[in-house]
Amino acid sequence: MEAVPPRARAYVACVVLAALACLLPLSVTRTPWWAVALLAVVYAGCRYFARRTLAGPFYPVLLAAAFLLPPAAAALVPLPGALFARAGQRPEALRRIWQAAQLVLAVWAASRAHRALGGPEAVVASDFPCALVPAGAAVLAFCLVLTALDGGIRGLAERMPVHRAWPGMFTRSLAPIGVHGLAGLMMAVLWCSPYGPVAALLVLLPMCVSWWAYAQYHRERAAHQSTIRALVQAVDLKDGYTRGHSERVGRASMMIARELGMDDERVEVLRFAGILHDVGKLGVPTRLLRKDGPLTPEERRVIELHPEYGHEMVRGISFLGEARSAILHHHERLDGSGYPYGLTGTQIPESARVVAVADAFDAMTSTRSYRRARPVDAALEELRRCAGAQFDPRMVAALARALDRYGWHPAVTAEDGASASPPVSSASGREEARR
Fold this sequence. Notes:
Blueprint: H1 6-23, H2 33-52, H3 60-68, H4 71-76, H5 78-84, H6 92-116, H7 119-124, H8 132-157, H9 162-165, H10 169-191, H11 196-202, H12 204-238, H13 245-259, H14 264-276, H15 286-289, H16 297-303, H17 306-314, H18 323-329, H19 350-365, H20 376-386, H21 393-406, H22 429-433
Protein name: HD-GYP domain-containing protein
InterPro entries: Cyclic_di-GMP/3'3'-cGAMP_PDE (IPR052020), HD/PDEase_dom (IPR003607), HD_domain (IPR006674), HD_GYP_dom (IPR037522), HDIG_dom (IPR006675)
Keywords: Membrane, Transmembrane, Transmembrane helix
């Protein structure tokens, strides 16, 4: 939105005019200004907290205002928080005005829907479950206005067709805004009770704690992703021959894990294992990784140390879990002819057997500087032929089922590649030397 098209600016101007029209009745409406001011200050504080914790939008206070105040008065509540908070992206002033106008319209619509169904009387009387019906209508109105306006600005600012700007936005937003609506309703009921506004504001404490925990979880996940990205980039810089391979092995490992019925957490760990399976190459001399022609037996032994190097590098990264054993053992073979320890059968960790199949599959289906990629069907046939001796048949069958369901679109990497473990009989001399 840095270079905002004229039609998008005109759209913003129309939304601002509509928001101002919603505020006009303030001059003739009896407004409880102390309540408006208190809720506006609380919303501004919550917005600041949400931004600092990366927790996303925080709407309970706005919906409580819609349940407690006349529409024009409720529409005032988001203005200070939206106008004076940092937008984070340019053009900042336009973004602040847009967000303020959007929230004014959404809160106004929610308050109108709530009052049309007798919501204020139900809130004052603490009449449950009758109070839920007008509150639900208010949440729907709030969500519809937000998503409609978001879809409009998205379509105009990004020159996106209308049929692509809105789909899915409402359904994705409804559940979280519904939770905020329940908290807002609880605030409104307590506000009108003998306990008063102080008790109502206490409702926000557990929500803030849960949002802080949620934000911490996502920060931790972002740190994990950054750690993995840095390691993969370091490998790619050291060995351009494998660029792109790690991400594809991670994707194939994830497909196999899902087909085997593993839970989401373990699927994510297997994806990490696939992405980092060759991180030990950072400990291998660059001249060996980039050497043209066959390797000497001594050079081969040095390269075959990379699983152990990789395991040492990630041993202290606790969130990787069983991915660490996959990194160590992904070159083992069922018949015991693999490395580094010559494990056989079920001695090889399940995660390593998954990555071994994903690794070999991507090696065969990627175009290299010295040979063209094999078709997916031919690569699968080779994996099946080597199943039982080199690969776990369960993993091969799971990959085949996943490919039937989702397909595979490998990138053409003329200068990229992998130190994959291709099937014994299919490996060229150059690729076999780098296994």
